[in-house]
Amino acid sequence: MSDNSFVVVANRLPVDTHTAPDGTRTWAPSPGGLVSALTPVLEKHQGCWVGWPGVVGDAPEPFRTEGGVLLHPVKLTQADFEGFYEGFSNATLWPLYHDLIVTPIYSRDWWQAYREVNLRFANEVAAVAAPGATVWVQDYQLQLLPGILRQLRPDLTIGFFLHIPFPSPDLFAQLPWRTELVRGLLGADIIGFQLESNARNFAELARRQGLEVTGSVRTRGIGTWVSAGDGRRSGIGAFPISIAAAAMADLTPADLGGAERLHAELGKERTVILGVDRLDYTKGIHQRLIAFEELLETGALDPDQVCLVQLATPSRERLEHYRTTRSTVEEAVGRINGRFGRIGQPVVHYQHTSVNKTILRRYYRMADVMLVTPFKDGMNLVAKEYVACHGDNSGALVLSEFAGAAAELTQAYQCNPFDIESMKKALRDAVVGLKQQPDVLAQRMRAMHEHVMAHDVDLWASTFLECLSTAGADRQAQ
Ligand code: ADP
Ligand code: G6P
């Protein structure tokens, strides 16, 4: 499909642009799970992607990526960046939807910026989408877009997917613009959430706002309908997102050799524990370091026999809570190495950078234990990526029960990241289990690997798009 009959719109494009001092423009993959998941889907459909190119004040002409995706950059000014992106999206909605891990800020100026930028995105999409096209709107930054687009282009079939959690109606009720946001979302023919609990929260909220809600929530299907107030209805369902599992699992001899060398550099006989996250306060990086430190302190783990590698992608770096999270994490890394490392042999290896997918897969493969400990996460693709890279059934996953992935990866060592003792126990059980119960661990990994391979991002996209197509056809038939 190259005629713009399938359009995805997300705040971010899959690549960010950088301009060198001599004016040369380069592109690099942009951060986050949304981009990781949608890139293979768009390449398969040869679709069109409308989004922001990651820099302020610049929107290059549309162009096609090597993978065949047509990119339509949307410009954000400095004021948009501060009010819409840093402000309303990431200092209001992000903490509110992640259950108030930090306190959301409610600013009327940011709300205005959010409305204006949603309107701009809607105008861009209305201009590029072919007659009768399917438009798939992504994530919390663009929740007003379905409603605006419905007005501008009633011919379109519009889907919306929320990549992050949807909070309980009691929390959502804090938002001064709660009615407008719900109305915006209901412009979509279907609204997808990661988990049934998220979808139920939305259905309950709609009920409290006096809208008619029928049916009960299902996974990978539409079981609930909410009246949209204009004679239409929107379908609600849970669609757990996933990864391009076959590509992730396909480790070449060079990858396997690279993984082995990486492990050898860290210490052939040492147990390597890995964390891979955007540097975000939702991810629980500091708490996992504390758990590790306490296990070293009590002698439950021996610093000569284990080490922890933490890769942290820079994220939203101007926001206060992100800055304090970074300094807390980096202080802990320094302290733990000062206490338990030796010259030339740190016990925590920390890198504040992103790495390319080839290198990342080698890290996943070489890691004996993966630590995924968010306080709250819509899904968490890192957990699924690790499992996909362990088709040989090696390794162990320590996983927060508050990650969406915990509903599927039930064979992980699950823990409560708010409870340091629970994290310590899960980590210690995983490390000890590798030595003492290798068969049990292999069985656990096998079950998780099979699940991830059978529930990949293709399944996610195809089930969502099938439901959307049916809902769009039903609306037109009415
Ligand atoms: P989020 O979307 O909140 O960042 P996810 O775990 O769902 O969390 O997705 C993160 C994505 O970013 C994954 O695809 C992961 O591979 C990638 N990623 C995270 N940290 C790094 C890193 N340091 N280097 C490269 N990729 C990373
Ligand atoms: C999460 C969000 C995405 C976002 C990504 C990176 O995955 O769900 O919408 O794009 O984080 O965050 P950023 O603010 O850099 O776009």
Write a structural description:
The protein has 478 residues and is α/β, with parallel strands linked by helices. The protein folds into two domains: 259 residues, 3-Layer(aba) Sandwich (Rossmann fold); 209 residues, Glycogen Phosphorylase B (Rossmann fold), CATH 3.40.50.2000. 45% of the residues lie in helices and 18% in strands. It has 16 helices and 18 strands. The strands form three sheets. The protein has a ten-stranded mixed beta sheet, with helices on both faces. Helix 13 links the parallel strand 16 and strand 17. Bound molecules: adenosine-5'-diphosphate (ADP) and 6-O-phosphono-alpha-D-glucopyranose. The site of adenosine-5'-diphosphate has 16 residues, from helix 1, strand 13, strand 14 and helix 13.
Write the layout of secondary structure elements.
Blueprint: E1 6-12, E2 15-19, E3 25-29, H1 33-45, E4 48-52, E5 63-64, E6 70-73, H2 78-97, H3 108-128, E7 134-138, H4 145-152, E8 157-161, H5 169-172, H6 178-185, E9 190-193, H7 196-208, E10 213-215, E11 224-227, E12 233-238, H8 245-249, H9 253-266, E13 271-278, H10 285-297, E14 306-313, H11 320-340, E15 348-351, H12 357-366, E16 369-372, H13 381-388, E17 396-400, E18 413-415, H14 420-436, H15 438-454, H16 457-477
The protein binds adenosine-5'-diphosphate and 6-O-phosphono-alpha-D-glucopyranose (G6P).
Residues 12, 31-34, 139, 163-164, 315-316 line the site of 6-O-phosphono-alpha-D-glucopyranose (G6P).
